[in-house]
Amino acid sequence: ETGVTQTPRHLVMGMTNKKSLKCEQHLGHNAMYWYKQSAKKPLELMFVYNFKEQTENNSVPSRFSPECPNSSHLFLHLHTLQPEDSALYLCASRSLWGAGEQYFGPGTRLTVT
Amino acid sequence: AQSVTQLGSHVSVSEGALVLLRCNYSSSVPPYLFWYVQYPNQGLQLLLKYTSAATLVKGINGFEAEFKKSETSFHLTKPSAHMSDAAEYFCAVSDEDSNYQLIWGAGTKLIIKP
Predict the structure, then answer these.
(1) Shortest Cα distance from A40 to chain B (angstroms)?
(2) Which region, left, alpha or beta, applies to residue A40 given φ > 0 means left and ψ of -120 to 50 means alpha?
(3) How far apart are CA A104 and CA A1, in angstroms?
(4) Per-residue pLDDT tens digits for A52-86
């Protein structure tokens, strides 16, 4: 499945580091999403972008900073994270003219030490 | 507000047995309904979707789901479980009220016993 790609697949970072997650969709979609998936917790929607404009920010701490330069690319900039931010970060995209189905990347497994 | 309830955080079946994963939703307008599967350390993959055509929807890997409006349900079934079906399954709903954003269930982990 190469419709939505995410890099890196695994990331270990210290609490004082700055890193970025990258997502790219090759499906011609116009909406992109960041989700956080922690063990034993429901899927958490973090950010939504429609046509490069942020339309939703679900009370995400400012140490997570999204960027959407165009409809195909989405970044999540990370700085001064906490150990509880360790999780699988999933990117998804969809067409705003569909029924709502989203297509997911493989995720980035983030460990904060 | 829309919501999705998946009954059972874990479901265990024997290989070859029927798989039944339950999903109930609430929506005040006609919904679209989806099932996704997630294998360990991977993203979510769309299994099947209901978009107001046939109420019985067939998906990949031999799964199917039936939309029952009177029961507000969209249960996922497979006649005969394989070891490779072991994964987590998520039900989701979208509708006009949610601007077609997906509202997710909490997920059900399917365990296959040899």
Answers:
(1) 9
(2) left
(3) 9
(4) 888 888 889 999 999 999 999 999 999 999 999 99
